[in-house]
Every structure is written in C-alpha cells, then in structure tokens.
Amino acid sequence: MGSEPPLRERIDRQIAAGLPNYDAIAAPIANDSEFLRRVTLDLTGRIPSAADARAFLADSSADKRTKLVDALLASPEYARRMQEIFDVLLMDRRRDSKVPRAEWEKFLRTSFAANKPYDELVRDILSSDGADPKTRPAAKFFLDRDLEPTIVTRDISRLFLGRNLQCAQCHDHPLVDDYKQEHYYGIQAFFNRAFLFPKADDPKAVIAEKADGEVNFISVFDPKKAQKTTPPAVPGWKPIGDPKLEKGKEYKVPPKKDVKPVPAYSRLAQLATAVTADENIAFRRTAANRFWAIMMGRGLVQPLDFDHSANPASHPALFEMLAEEFEEKNYDVKGLLREIAMSKTYQRSSEPTAAGKDLAEDRYATAILKPLSPEQLGYATMQATGLTDVYRTELAKKYTEEALHAKLASNLGPFRSLYGTRAGEPEEGFASTLDQTLFVKHGGHIRNLIAPRTGSLVDRAAKLAEPSRVAEELYLTVYTRLPSDEERRDIEDALRGSANRTAVLGDIVWAMLASAEFRFNH
Predict the structure, then answer these.
(1) What predicted TM-score, i.e. pTM, was given to this entire model?
(2) DSSP 141-162
(3) For all residues of the chain together, what is the average pLDDT?
(4) Is the dihedral of CA 195, 129, 182, 151 positive or negative?
(5) What long-range pairs does 330-335 form, CB within 8 A, spacing at least 24?
(6) CA distance 266 to 251
(7) What values do phi and psi take at 259, rounded to 5?
(8) Using CB atoms within 10 A of its CB, is residue 267 exposed (0-12), middle (13-18) or buried (19+)?
C-alpha cells in the first residue's frame, strides 16, 4: 500500500474535481515574478526588495519555489505578519484598555514564531484570567472587551466556531435554521458567572467568577414568554453539567470585600477545552477555513462565519480533508500554509484564460485579486520607495527585524487609520474611499516616503545613466517584475530632455504606487 500523496496534490485534485474540464480552463501557473510577490506578501506582509527579486529570477534551480516558501516561513517577518493578521482578527482594531498592545503583539508573535499549535494558542487566549503577569497578554481578548457578554458571545462563536450567532440573541436565527437561541446562550453560560475584579474600568482588572448563576432567556417570538435556561454548551456537542458541591464548599476563596473570589468549580475554565476539543468539529473546520482564506483570498465556506447546512463549502470534500488533516497534524500552522503555498491551485496566474474569465471565484481557476491590508500596503510602500533599504543600511551590523520594524512603525499609522475599519468592527470587503484616493494622490505622507534620500529608489534610479536600467530598477522595486518593452520606452520618453530628472522620477514612482497593480496582491 503506497503512502498518501502530499496535501498539496490532494488539494489540486479536489479543486480540479469541482469543475468539468478544469485543467483546460484554469489559468496557467504564475510566472516567477508573480509568485514571488504573491507569496512574500501572503507570508510576510511585505514585497520583495529589488535585490531579492533579481536573485530569485536569476535562480535556475528546480526547487527554488520550495526553498523560498521555507525561507519565508522561517523568517521573523512571517511571525510579525501572523501577529498583524490575528491582532486585527481577534481585536478588531480596538483601542487598548487593560492590556498594552506591545505585550499582546509579542505574545502573538512569539507564538507564531515557535509554531505553537493553533488549538494551544486559542486555549491560551480563552483560559487566561489576567492575574498572572506572564499570561496576562493572552487575556486581552476578554479584558479589552470588558467581558461584555453580548460581544464576547458573538466573537467566540464567529471567530472560533464559524457561526455568527449575533442574530440568535433574542430568538432563533431568522435566516439560518441551524443557529438556535440556545446555542447563543450555551456559549454565554461558560462565562455568565465571570466579572471583572475589582471593577470593569480598572486598567489592572482581572477576571473573577461567582460559584452560581444561570443564563435565562426568552424568545421574543414565543407568545407564552416561557423562560428557558441552558448549561454551558458548544453548538453540536453535549452540554457540560455542573458538579454537585457540598453546601458551604462552593468556593476555594469566598467572596469578601477587596478579595477576588475563586469558586471550587469554574465554568469559565471549561471554555477553552470545550471550544478546541477533538469532538468539536466546528473548531477545526473554522480554523482550516480561515487559514485557507488568508492564502487564497476567500474561504471554502464564505462568509467565514456562516458555516451551516444551507451554505455548503464550495468544495465539501476538500473542506473536510483540510480540517481533518489540520487536526491530525497537531494544528501545525506552518505546515498547512506551506502545503497550500506549494499547491498548483495557489500558484495559478491571476490572468484568466479566455474560457475561464467569467468563472466564479469559488472555482479557484484563477488566482483571486486580494486588496493589500493596511499593514501590507504600508510596508509595501516603504519597501517600494526604498525607505526600508535606507533604514536597513543605517542599522548595518545592528540590523534585526525588530530594530528595522521599530524604525518603520511610525509610518504605518496613516495607512491603518485610512484603510482599516472602525474599531470594534470586523474587516470585510474592499472599497476605495475618497480619503484613500486623496491620501495617495495628494497626501504629504506618500510624497515624503518617495522623497530622495541616500539609498532610496529615486536616489538609486537617478544615478543610473541608461533609461532601460532605470526602468528595470523601478519595475523590479515597485512591481517585482521586469518592465515590458513599451514600459521601457515610456520611461525613456519621460526622462528624455528632462531638466529635473529627480522630480520626474518622483512623479513616476508616485504614479506606480497609485496603480491597481500595486494596491492588490495578484
């Protein structure tokens, strides 16, 4: 009996099975330039430098894409990229209130750098009460939501269980038969006894818990207004009953003035295990779907938080296979991302074939255009203008990824404020606003990044005498590709007879940064 093919091959087989004549319709494999830019953005949140692009394009080894993916996954930039994704995902760009952002980001970054199993990471987040300084950063998920029941219930269900139960608070979901009001309150019952101690607005507050208390709910559509209750329960899994405790021994530490109570039995302590348990199929489905979406631009179930029987996966067998394999491989995040990146499905060109140009995105016949996140756009702009290279040179022997980030970080603010969603709201969809357009076209921040400084793109290009070499430097740096013959001629025409070569180059770079080719990952 032969061994099972690599996951990447099984991904490709399942995708091909989802469309008749897929191989003839699907886009060809992306060229080296397109692949290099795409996978670098997806795994590190940055674009390659011109030097990296030249080296990769000149490499003739057959396994260079494999070596590239492995190098990116091993880099500190990968850990920061995942930190940025999951900070936004889990905290919705909320303002800090009880846990400093730097501590939370370090917790995420070190977790992904160590390739901590994803289920373990989620357990850390859902089990910390904030009392131990070593584990307090993980409690940001609860603490910076002020443990507000409706928000916490909604976000646990949508982020970890793939079910947006917000509309099931007052009655069974009006549009999704699978989502019941008892599911909403079953999740809430894990933490309905919990509260912030000593008080909610204390920046040093921790999570405390009472020994009793039930969730009670009434459906607004019930004419009898019958009051119901439910023990802690994850949808689709058996409820967790409370143990019977001897009267008078309900607390390890009884509640007293200025004393944090500690119950003998904690409902909240059951939450992390219940959410990530092997029996909870929803957790691994949601996790696999989310990492697939990070790489592919959409989920196999879309929207990501509406996994239910009336909204089946685009490729059901693939969805089940990814979820099961992720769980079987101990929720190995790097391993899953590596296999997706090495699949033909991921590596297809974003240019459709004539037969495939009208196909739906969920057929994965063509790479999906993905708007850059605020962080990606900021880092890409700094790399494209050469600011990243300038700072890297300045640091010289003192260079580390962390030191470079410290120099670049202040420039991310405008990108986050203009391109990020409002605090507390999930980031979904893409629509360019007038403010964003003006920021790129007329904003002083972009012009300041373009301004020539020793080692910047404009500075480097201005020192090149041959227009064709200027064009190559510009296009490799900004677009990670070589210019076409027509683009070389356009650069030559723009520079011919120019009295202020530096100013012209600045305008060219600005126009390139304002283009759709730069704004999207493709």
Answers:
(1) 0.96
(2) HHHTTTT-HHHHHHHHHHHHSS
(3) 94
(4) positive
(5) 330/117, 331/117, 331/118, 331/119, 331/120, 331/284, 331/287, 332/115, 332/117, 333/82, 333/112, 333/115, 333/117, 333/118, 333/291, 334/73, 334/115
(6) 10
(7) -120, 130
(8) buried
